[in-house]
Write a structure and sequence with these properties.
- With about 90 residues, this protein is mainly alpha-helical.
- It has a domain of about 50 residues.
- It is built from two helices and no strands.
- The longest helix is centred in the last third of the chain and has 27 residues.
- The chain starts with about 40 loop residues before the first helix and ends with a helix.
């Protein structure tokens, strides 16, 4: 069939150089045209980091609640090891 081939026809087009003064993309909504972040954007990032820091402090704190959970886990692990040893003795191992 004429006009059908596996390779596409070449396209004649002009290459237009990019304008060095034009921005490549639109600035992000929280930044101005010069790439400076807005005050609200900076405040939001700082507040987020502060909240993360507080949360990590609470999670790793040596509190009575944390010690209780740790004690419960230790007791559970001890009972599991005793039960496993009992099962192994029952199997003759």
């Amino acid at each position: 069939m004429p006009g059908t081939s596996d390779s596409p026809e070449p396209v004649d087009a002009e290459i237009v150089p990019a304008d060095p003064e034009a921005p490549l993309t639109a600035p992000a909504p929280d930044y101005d045209d010069r790439g400076v972040p807005s005050f609200d954007h900076v405040r939001t990032k700082i507040e987020g980091r502060h909240a993360t820091s507080q949360g990590m402090t609470e999670l790793t704190a040596d509190t009575p609640e944390a010690r209780t959970v740790e004690d419960e886990m230790t007791e559970r692990d001890r009972k599991a090891a005793e039960r496993l040893a009992e099962i192994r003795r029952g199997l003759g191992g």
